[in-house]
Amino acid sequence: MTDLIQKEHLNFFQDKQGRKGIFAWLLSTDHKRIGLMYLYSIMVFFLVAMALGFLMRLELIKPGKQIMEPETYNQLFTLHGVIMIFLFIIPGIPAVFGNIILPLILGAKDVAFPRLNLFSYYLYVVGALFALSTLVLGDGPADTGWTFYAPYSVRTGTNVSLSVLAAFILGFSSILTGLNFLTTIHRMRAPGMTWFKMPLFAWSTYATSWIQVLATPIIGITLLMIIAERVLGIGLFDPALGGDPILYQHLFWIYSHPAVYIMILPGMGIISEIIPVFSRRRIYGYKAIAYSSLAIAFIGYFVWGHHMFTSGMSGQARIVFSLLTFLVAIPSAIKVFNWIATMYKGAIDMQPPMLWAMGFIFLFTIGGLTGLVLGALATDVHLHDTYFVVAHFHFVMFGGTGYAFIAALHYWFPKIYGKMYNIKRAKTAFWITITGFMLLYFPMFIAGFKGMPRRYYNQLPHFQVENFISTVGSWVLITGIILMITNIVIGVRKGHKIGKNPWNGLTLEWQTDSPPTIENFDEIPTVTEAPYEYKS
Amino acid sequence: MWVWVALLILTVITVSAVLVDLKNFIVFAALFIATIKATIVAVYFMHLKFESKIISIMLILTMVVFITFILLTFVDYSYR
Amino acid sequence: MTLHRDDEASKMGMWIFLFTELLLFGGLFLVYSIYRHKNPDPFAHAGSELDVFIGTINTIALITSSLTVALSITAIQKNKPKLAIGFLWLTIVFALVFMVNKYFEWGAKFEHGLFPGQEHFMSIDKGEQLFFFLYFFMTGLHGLHVVVGSILLGFVIMRIRQKRVTHDNFVFHENGGLYWHLVDLIWIYLFPLFYLIK
After folding, report:
1. What domains appear along chain A, each with residue ranges and CATH number?
2. Span B8-24, pLDDT tens digits
3. If contacts are CB pairs under 8 Å, which of residues 2-41 in chain B contact chain A?
4. pTM for the full predicted model
5. Are residues B4 and B40 in the same domain?
6. Is A16 helix (H, G, I), strand (E, B) or coil?
7. Confidence band (pLDDT; 50, 70, 90) for A1?
8. Residues 124-143 of C with CB under 8 A from B
9. DSSP at A11
10. How far apart are CA B60 and CA B57, in angstroms?
11. CB within 8 Å: C34 and B73
């Protein structure tokens, strides 16, 4: 009798659903397997892009040529951006943790459209291969910057069309994932889980999915127009042919600004999950955080012009966009206050997920505040296209989303693998990483403020100190990251077995087995309480 | 059935409106009539009248976002 | 994996997909509106080269095809699969009428050298070039959706024959219809913007 029960209770790694060998993974429509396939692919691409960043910093260690030609440098920063943004950060948390955890946290057996989910993954892989193929084909990767601004993107001989086609395909992967999650959240919550009993990770995934669905098509069509202009020579964006390059910028940023909220909202959702658990306190201001996610998504659609303050827009447009940019900062600030309020007088448990989450709060706050400096018209004129911008977005995208991704990895690791990694090594990796992070990126604020332009292969001598510290910082950072990943990998292979709920979380995923079975729940639970109801 | 007749009538109106010289106003008039046609298609042919309200809310929000994209872009171009 | 059937979810998924299509064309409408604002006279002049009569016929064809597809769904709900299939074929016929008209329209433009890349095209006013590029891109993309929609409706016919779509289980049919109505909706906006411009 016990044998029978144990056989039926295979976890999702063991239950191959009748498929053989690698096809148990490649053809699986199980959200957990798909999420893990995304995780492994994403980690590979992250490492490639990190290596490109490493090489860029080597070139910038001091003035003059070090290891590469200027044209190569342009291609490196383009590909570094394309891979980090389109292959790591935008898919990142939704594709990995949205897929693995969202159904669990909602009390569902899978997402609404499992086969569409697998199809999204394949679109991702195809798009990624297209993007990486530019490394080896023709004149090499695009050298336009990940923003592909016209007219240069229309005229350069490098592989722009291929890169842009890759982004188009990746965009569809993103759209379909968003569609899937929206339907899942609307239709598949466990009985009793009203909207306001839903965990905040689900709220932020919901807001994110709307942005994925509504904003991504705009860049899709814009990229098609770039290809059309390159192939047919019509003057859509190239002024020499009668087009308007600023129109390209409008179209590009109408997507790409909301895209940064696709990046950060899921990260914020993760922090909202982790802080209550490791403070052993109910989250402060649950509704405020839920509404803030929606507000960020909504207002975020309308601030794109702040990337174009020096491009030639009308004065009226610049004022409107600057005002809207200040508005969108408010809900983010509300979230930061609420997280800190949650921690106040809590019983803080300094486990690795909490360390990364606190790192997020610290780094994201710096990034967010410097965003306001950039959002103000007068200061932006001085700082646009300098290293100040580079520092700002690395603080929010890496210190923010990146750290949240790593926090999520450390938080849900025991649930996914049924094992635990080495805690001490994880904490050491955190401290090395954050030290390297500050050394690498903080000097960039100073260099930018002093006037160092971005995307420049060479530098003036009076930026030398900041650049040197920055490059050394990159070595420290990479060491920390590699240690962190190694620790995780060792944990996957040799970690000691762990129970269902090592962190004492109160959300539904902690009720399933570790690792969960294919169907997640033997019986769909009925929800009666709000999440995070810690008795203090 | 009547929906179809209504749509055809509106089409005829749009086409004939062009013959009247309304200069710039014709764009708004044509778009306005097109929007009425689109709404009729959505509500009756696409059954929005009988579906859950949530879909209508989603559609309206989507259109608000899209229209705002156009309006904000015009804030730039109208004042250059 | 036992997933219960959820028709509301299927329809919601299709509607959300339609929103993405709206935004996809929306980007092109944005480009069109800006360039029309900047080049009112070349746009008007280029627009007058389009045949309003054929455009109107096409509009009527698509609107009628929307009617027939809606009637096909009513038919399947009333457990009249043969009638449903009949209306679906009628819808596809109207789609064909539309595409044939398009073929002749495009052919005529081609003969006048007005397709992007052709010599005459490269010599006309830049504003007119933009008009024609947008005309071909937007009606082309729309035409692609007409073809895809027709194929989708073909699948619906197949599934009715296979009894996979019945009066009890017709959400696949409804979703096909929704996609078809989108095709009609886009044309409802394309028509006045390209054909009725003076």
Report:
1. 18-511 (1.20.210.10)
2. 777 777 777 666 666 66
3. none
4. 0.94
5. yes
6. coil
7. very low
8. none
9. B
10. 5
11. yes
